[in-house]
Structures are given as C-alpha cells and as structure tokens.
What we know:
Blueprint: H1 2-28, H2 34-45, H3 48-58, H4 64-77, H5 84-106, E1 109-111, E2 114-116, H6 118-127, H7 131-140, H8 145-151, H9 153-167, H10 172-179, H11 190-213, H12 223-230, H13 244-253, E3 263-268, E4 278-283, E5 287-294, H14 301-316, H15 322-326, H16 330-342, H17 347-350, H18 358-374, H19 380-388, H20 397-412, H21 428-431, H22 437-457, H23 466-478, H24 486-494
Parallel strand pairs: 3-5
Antiparallel strand pairs: 1-2, 4-5
Helix pairs in contact: 1-2, 2-5, 3-4, 5-9, 6-7, 6-12, 9-10, 14-16, 16-22, 19-20
Amino acid sequence: xxxxxxxxxxxxxxxxxxxxxxxxxxxxxxxxxxxxxxxxxxxxxxxxxxxxxxxxxxxxxxxxxxxxxxxxxxxxxxxxxxxxxxxxxxxxxxxxxxxxxxxxxxxxxxxxxxxxxxxxxxxxxxxxxxxxxxxxxxxxxxxxxxxxxxxxxxxxxxxxxxxxxxxxxxxxxxxxxxxxxxxxxxxxxxxxxxxxxxxxxxxxxxxxxxxxxxxxxxxxxxxxxxxxxxxxxxxxxxxxxxxxxxxxxxxxxxxxxxxxxxxxxxxxxxxxxxxxxxxxxxxxxxxxxxxxxxxxxxxxxxxxxxxxxxxxxxxxxxxxxxxxxxxxxxxxxxxxxxxxxxxxxxxxxxxxxxxxxxxxxxxxxxxxxxxxxxxxxxxxxxxxxxxxxxxxxxxxxxxxxxxxxxxxxxxxxxxxxxxxxxxxxxxxxxxxxxxxxxxxxxxxxxxxxxxxxxxxxxxxxxxxxxxxxxxxxxxxxxxxxxxxxxxxxxxxxxxxxxxxxxxx
Length: 504
C-alpha cells in the first residue's frame, strides 16, 4: 500500500495549498491563484498511471481497511477518467464557483441606503423591537441574489447539470449523493413527513408567538427575535476578546484539550472578509482555521463552538491515515459541530456567564431549546429547494424565486412573504451544492448518538458523564468515521437504518 499512500500524500499537499488560498480569499477578499491550485489537484486526479495503480490494488487480496482505502481513492479518481470533456467542465465549474464566492464574500447589503454587515443584520433581527425594521433587515439579505445571477449563477447551475449528464447520473443531485456514498432514496418521503407535522408544528409555533410577541403569526423576520424574547440571555453583551477561555473550558469538560490543537481563529468583521462562519481544515491533525464575525453577543458562541467542533474533529482524525480521512462523512462532521454548538445553552457552558442567575437562564434556555426542536424539520424546505435547482429548468432569476416559493408552499404550506425571497446569501448554493442536508442529518445522527450512549451507560443525560461521552465521540465516531460509509456507521452504532424519527 506504500504507493497508494504516496498518491494520497501528494493529493493532501495539493489540497492543503488550495485550502490555504481559499482561506486567504475568504478572510481578505484576495485571490492569489485558487484556480491554478485547483488545476494542480485535477492534474493528480487525471494521472492515468496513478488511476491504473489504484485499480490494480483494488483487485488484490486486501484487508477490509485497505479495501476501504482503495475504494475511497478509486471513487475520487473515477470522474477524471471518463472523458476529457468532463475534466474541462470540472475546471470551468471551479472557476465560476470561485468567482461567485468572491462576489458573496465582498457583497454588503444596504438598509435605507446605509451599508450593513451580516452581523449587523443578525443583531437587528435578534434585538430590534420594531417589526418593520426587522423586516427591512431580513429582506436586505435578498439583495445579493441579483449580483450572483448577474455574475453567472444560472450558468453555474447549467454547468453542474451538464456535468452530471456527462458523468452518467440522472441529475446533479444523484451525482452529488453518489459521491457522498449516500443512497438517493434517503430523501424519499421527507416532504410528506414534514407536511404531516405542519398543523401541530404551526399550533405550537403560534402558542410561542402569542405568549412572547402578542401575535398570531410568525413572519420570517420574527424567528430570531422570538428566541431573544424566550431567552433574553442570548442577547447578553459579552467581551469577545476573551472568547477562547470559555470555549476551551467547554471542550475540557468533555475531556478534550483544544490548547493542544493548532487552531487559528479570525473572528472579527472587516471589509472584504466573508461574513459568515467556517472551518478550514487545512491539514488534519496539523492546521485548522476558523473564520467568524462577532459583535459581542452571547448567541455568537453557538457559531464559535460549532466551528471549534469541526476543528476538534479534524484534529482527532488519525493524521497518518490520509486515505481513510478522505472518506470522513460531512454528515458526521456537521452533526458533531452542531452538537457542540448546541452546548452554548447548556449549564455546563453558560453558568459562568450568568452567575447568580443560572437557574433563571437554564429555564429560559430550556424553553428556547423546546422552540428550536419544534422548528427542526422546517429546514427540509431549504434542503429540497437546493436540490430542485438541479432538477428544474432555470432560465431566469424569476424561475429561482418561483421555485423557492413553490417549495416553501409544498413543504411548509407558507405563502410568499415578499416579491423576492432571501436565498443567495446561503453560500452553500454557490460553493457547496447539495450540502444543506448534512446539517439536519447530522442532528439526527447526534440524537442517535446521545440515545445510544445513555442506554449503554445507564444515564438519562450525557451531561451526567460528559468526559465519557467525549471519549465515545472521539473513539467510536470521529476516529473511525472514514472507515465506513455514513449509512454503515449509523447502522453500526445504532443497530438501525437512518430515519428522521430519531428526532422524536
């Protein structure tokens, strides 16, 4: 397997260089050769001698783990050996995606002619009591739709559709899921399942609206504000210059020492820096970087803990097993990150922020978590919209907007809240298509992991044995996740197939 590992190491070096350049673009707005770095990666994948060697190894009598390693590499190399046209399409898609990511990263919305950041908008949505001002802020997110489409977003959709067709998939959704080692059928019935919960979900949502907003209806610009009314502690001003110590302490409660990880944080806003939050795993076990944009509010710890969860995950993967790490599931990664993000409203984290008020804060956060759970399946509408961009004919920006409204109506029974929906600000549509399902499926996975842990350890909550739970995540999930497909790992741990029912 020595030659296989050499190929993987060459790929890792090129991927790391590319990721460093993407980090630079996202943090400064400057592109110092992302497309050229990507072309180097394509050259490696397109090397016929390397591909033939991998296929030859696939025919040898190998151990189960070595078979998995060869399978991972073969699947990564395969698309680059179907046709020269496919390779050229891949490069064009990458170049256009890089261009559009640049537009997204440097775009700043305007409210009443004044430029605002995404962090400003979130702060308004969280704390502004005037519903009309919140509405303006929410709708400002839709402004980026137009420069995105003018920059070539519809062309990007069509290139991806063309790529899937040349690849031999029925559509780009099927292609993407195959590349993730997911069964296309895994989404069957999701829309209907959400629709069946709508009456009960809406009644519970309306109860919260009546109790906290004196309103019978929750508009999209009310959602974040309602959370702040349920738990005012979310909006507490905090000094983010000292963010690291409480984050470190939280992970320490689970037996994870992040001070040993080489993680770089860039958390304050500036011009030309991407406005959202990301983790860049430059090299597993060696270099991880976190981008965020904070204004100094307690709710921002959700993002910081989420992205640190990604970093912890990348540092807990066996650094020398380069190939198996390439098979690590995005669903597992997002699930673990979401899980640590959710701990921001657990007493194990927030108690030091609300000394003397911890009991009151706990009641408020528990109520807020109850509200979040009610809304958990609502993300299915956005997941299906992201997929349907590649299944429907899209010729104009109006086609995109109509598809958004139609999907919202079908899944959530919601009529349009405005002429123009806010969708383009979600960078996943541009740089990570057919990805949004990873967050919801990750949440399902973590609910499963918590239930399995509690059953095996005879406890009612993971907080009764946080260090043991942290060890379980590291040893039984993170370190081995690349050795299995997502579906295999889910069934191995739970004994059952994936199902949204685990959220109940």
